[in-house]
Structures
1.
Amino acid sequence: MSKREFQTEVSQLLQLIIHSLYSHPEIFLRELISNSSDALDKLRHLTLTDDAYKTLPFDPRIDLELDEENKTLTIADTGIGMNEEDLIAHLGTIARSGTKNFLAQLSGDARKDSNLIGQFGVGFYSAFMVADRVEVISRKAGEEQAWRWVSDGKSGFDIEAAERSVAGTTVLLHLNEEGRQYANSWRLQEIVKKYSNHIAFPIFLTYDKSEWNEAEKKSEKIRTTEQVNAASALWRRSKNELKEDDYKEFYKSITGDSEDPLFWFHTKAEGSLEYTTLFYVPSKAPFDLYQSEYRTGVKLYVKRVFIMDDAKELLPQYLRFVRGVIDSEDLPLNVSREILQQNRVLTSIRTASVKKILSELKNIAANQPEQYLKFVAEYNRPLKEGLYSDFANRETLLDLIRFKSTKVEGLTSLADVKSRMKEGQKSIYYITGGAESLLRTSPLLEIYKKKGMEVLILDDEIDEIVFSGVDKYDDIELKAVNKSSTNEDLKDEAEPDKTEALKPLIDKLKISLGDRVKEVRASVRLADSPSCIVTDEEEPSIKMQQMLRAMGQKDIPAPKPTLEINPDHEIVSKLLARGDDPIVEDAAWLLLDQALLLEGVPLQDPASFVQRLNRILNLSI
Ligand SMILES: Nc1ncnc2c1ncn2[C@@H]1O[C@H](COP(=O)(O)OP(=O)(O)OP(=O)(O)O)[C@@H](O)[C@H]1O
């Protein structure tokens, strides 16, 4: 037996792993299974590509064997294996540049250093978290001689010739105090399912199963071998190999949903970054979609090894309804949550994934309109959220969102609205601020109806907030009809300006209403109603001000809208004719209050409103 010392860096790394590293020692199993899976991948590749290996048997499997009595656990594979040289090189030195890099950055401060290690894999050496002695018996594919490597993880290792009937590697762990908890078949199955369920190779567990012996009326231990993982990294298989049902079953297995998904997008990226994504859109929006404590639905894998399933960093919040898998070749296995937030690899995958999901949705909208409508019925609102959180994809989102409108039944797209624009129409118009029925009967829409122009009915609670930040679709401005600036758009050049003629009345209304209004002016947007209110471009709408106040913002001043009166309305011309009659003051308030009521704003002073109404009623009866 030859005694060898660890490379200094290995000793350093081992100290770190054992003393300050992992808060979850269970991940040792994930690391060792991942090594086995890599070894199987390598041999598979060789048997497929290298003539020298083509005739070798390849029966890929990973075997976990538990000896509860002796407190040992073995992890064995039929992979590429290692010869003496490999064992010395791989399990005694640190060849990987990543780990070297990591060690170079160590500061000596245990806390800082253990944060740092999250960025690098420590792989095999994590076995020493749970074992005080590790034996590796390995035989390289194509060679006859096997070797045993033994270490206590302190100063070095011994290596000697050994026997192994087939090529592959066996890692034998003599479990320490910390590791004893893993000498439990139930616990092992749980860990395998959690982290390695989709490792592409079957993982078997051999253990003593307690079974009831009816004849002898007692339970007895029977040595049993069972497969413990699903062994199906479905997303890694090529699209042409997979049938619709395969996708659907997998969706159900990862989500627990009993319904089929609406659609799925399966992508394999090769190039500077290698990763596979398989995203699903559930046919019904998840029940917690609008709760702040929603659960995310995308699982992160690294090289088919499960890493985490509740990382909010994987996709932007507005796509939280998406379910599925991201599997990266480039992230380290023990990437931590903190690191995910600023990881360049993940940022690139995320950006590309969002683009992919949105462009696939666009395809569906174009080619399967009926399916797309089902999608919109569930997810129109999260897409709208994207308008204010995902600036880079705003154009695409605007194309994907669907709208109610004054021109069509059901829902319509902005592209269609644009194609229906009237000759001379300057902008695309929309109305926000209340229930659909309130919006559809708003006096603000009268002029558009008269001119045959389409107006979008934005009756969703969040529309007000979201669309106030969107000024354009393509090259066309998007404008709210209750903003004073839309007035300019609607002016008919041919029509004379009526403000001058109305000036005496306007002045009187201003005096009566005082501070309650910002301005009074002649309207160009009214047909059947005598008055309406609008707000300035940069001001929140009246409805928005109400919402802000309801949310507890105390310093919102009382609404001070601009009152517009309809020069062509009978009430207005009659009032103009009344001159200094005190009834004009009552009428001023009624014109303002009725406009506010139609905007969904409750009366500030109902008693005065009723008194004025009655005075005027009295005159007219
Ligand atoms: N079961 C195994 N079969 C064959 N070779 C192995 C096995 N386990 C480890 N090795 C060899 O030992 C090397 C070091 O393993 P270790 O787990 O420390 O790092 P790694 O697997 O390269 O990196 P990471 O764990 O970050 O993926 C591996 O690269 C591989 O060459």
2.
Amino acid sequence: MGRRTDGLRLWHYPDWRDGLTDALRLSAAMTSKFAVAGLPSGGGKAVVALPEGRELDTDRRRDVLRDVADVIASLSGAYATGPDVGTSPADMAVIGKTTPHVFCKPADLGGSGDSSPHTAQGALAALRAVSRRLCGTSSLGGRSFAVIGLGRVGAGLARLLAAEGAILTVTDIDPDKQKISDELGAVWRSPDETLAADVDIVVPAALGSMLTSRTAADLRCRAVVGPANNQLATPDVADLLHQRDIIWVPDYVASAGGVINAISTELHRVSADEARARVRAIEDTVDDLLDTAQRCGQTPAQAASELARRRLNGTSGPTGTNHGAVAVPGSVAR
Ligand SMILES: NC(=O)c1ccc[n+]([C@@H]2O[C@H](COP(=O)([O-])OP(=O)(O)OC[C@H]3O[C@@H](n4cnc5c(N)ncnc54)[C@H](O)[C@@H]3O)[C@@H](O)[C@H]2O)c1
Ligand SMILES: CC(C)[C@H](N)C(=O)O
């Protein structure tokens, strides 16, 4: 069995089976993410499905993480985890006490630390490629962006965009995040208004399935490019966006900066500079994909999926079409 890698999501779901569905969709996307990034791993995802409204106190959270660590340890290296929505390097440190199969522990414990700044840099690189396509320059100053989700990745990316002189509309379901909006001089709107904002590029940086046939019809932007995993509710939304002349860069391409940095530094042992260069190369990957799509009369989604398929078929060993999901039902957290 090939090795599968990727993050641990700790989030609320109406039913633990919704968490399982999320884990399966995310793990499939991770397989494509690793393939397009040229990384030698299958995709995986672990989800802790918390019942709606249930918050974990410190002790309960540690117990849940230990349960997750036991499951990962039982897989004997077939799956390694890292952070995702709802988890952090500190959580990886807890898991790391039970199993070595964990990425992104804090640097003082030998890990590569928080993946989110690298994910944000990777998404910025993807945005540069799309800006060049739309405006003839990779410079982001003066361009308008609508950032949805001001969590670890979204807030970091919004700060990078603000530093380049971009014009920002932002949102989050957490009203406390309006502080970040104020700090950046951004316009704060509701999530629905932000998705339909009249901007150059919408940047999904929250949870998945935001792009449905209905929301795609309401978009007023020229492109959708962001770090959120699984942005499309259903694959056909990519065609709807293409028909509307809206460029959509597949999430598994734009969001690869975090895993590229973690694998490059923790497994390939390259320098921080080399890892940064690999993350920045997402700009070239997106350039190539958009060129291929245009040349072959495809959507960027089709071009990316063909590239992933070619890489998966042409590679033996640890990379394969297999992906795996570990769902830890909410019962552990009840
Ligand atoms: N952390 C990483 O390195 C990394 C890497 C690749 C992809 N991603 C993806 O990027 C996205 C964000 O990850 P993160 O690590 O920043 O998570 P996070 O938990 O730190 O942030 C998510 C943010 O989205 C907000 N949010 C949730 N639902 C929303 C909605 N409907 N509308 C607006 N805001 C909403 C939350 O309140 C939170 O502030 C996720 O899809 C994740 O899978 C993260
Ligand atoms: C960094 C990685 C572990 C991240 N959760 C991703 O989805 O790519």
